[in-house]
Design goal:
elongated; mainly alpha; about 60 residues
Length: about 60
């Protein structure tokens, strides 16, 4: 394999990761928004996420 093929292959790999990374960020933001503003049966989902943050010693206040 020559250097031109290696450069093109690595560029193709980087370009194929971009949509996946953008999708992962978007999904994470949707989940974060959904959990952060979850109102419903006693805020169970919100409180569970809040307790998880405390368990991981992640500051949330």
């Amino acid at each position: 394999m020559n250097s031109f093929a290696v450069i093109n292959t690595s560029r193709a790999v980087r370009e194929s990761r971009l949509p996946a990374a953008a999708g992962a960020v978007l999904l994470g933001l949707v989940i974060l928004y959904g959990v952060g503003f979850a109102l419903g049966q006693g805020d169970v989902l919100h409180n569970a996420a809040h307790d998880t943050r405390h368990t991981m010693v992640f500051p949330c206040h």
